[in-house]
Amino acid sequence: QVQLVESGGGLVQAGGSLRLSCAASGRTFSAYGMGWFRQAPGKEREFVAAISGSGGSTNYADSVKGRLTISRDNAKNTLYLLMDSLKFEDTAVYYCAARPAYNSGRYYFENAYAYWGQGTQVTVSS
């Protein structure tokens, strides 16, 4: 079992920055690939970014490439999402999720993730 708790969301103006954190507890954090997903009002939840267990491999949705950066600190059992140049359309609830190693190639799919946090709201004002 892995417990995930997101923090760092809030209200920010367009063009601003935020850093989301996801604190993990339970099983060995580095054994899991991690991902960030988001759900905007009235829309399906979508993939944002993913990172391998070691942190050596990352993947991003096209809509966030160059603006959002996923990283992790395995010594602190924490996942991060640095969000720069925020746009109004980045407004959403952001979720972190943990992915077993055997699903490493399926990082884009929600059902590849076994554990989810409760989400943190990010609101970008235009």
Summarize the structure.
This protein has 126 residues and is mostly beta strands. The chain is built from no helices and eleven strands.
Keywords:
four-stranded antiparallel β-sheet; seven-stranded mixed β-sheet; about 130 residues; single chain; mainly beta
Describe this structure in words.
- A hairpin with a 6-residue loop joins strand 5 (46-51) and strand 6 (58-60).
- The protein is globular and about 40 Å long.
- It has strands at residues 2-7, 10-13, 18-26, 32-39, 46-51, 58-60, 68-73, 78-83, 92-100, 115-116, 120-125.
- It has 126 residues and is mainly β.
- The strands form 2 sheets. Strands 2, 4, 5, 6, 9, 10 and 11 form a 7-stranded mixed beta sheet that branches. It has a 4-stranded antiparallel beta sheet with strand order 1-3-8-7, with no helix packed on it.
- It contains no helices and 11 strands.
What is the strand and helix layout of this fold?
Layout: E1 2-7, E2 10-13, E3 18-26, E4 32-39, E5 46-51, E6 58-60, E7 68-73, E8 78-83, E9 92-100, E10 115-116, E11 120-125
Parallel strand pairs: 2-11
Antiparallel strand pairs: 1-3, 3-8, 4-5, 4-9, 5-6, 7-8, 9-10, 9-11
Any idea what the radius of gyration is?
Answer: 13 Å
Element string (H = helix, E = strand): EEEEEEEEEEE
Unreliable stretches: none
Structural class: mainly beta
Beta fraction: over 45%
Helicity, in percent?
A: under 10%
Between the first and last Cα atoms, what is the distance in angstroms?
A: 40 Å
Given the structure, what is the number of helices? 0
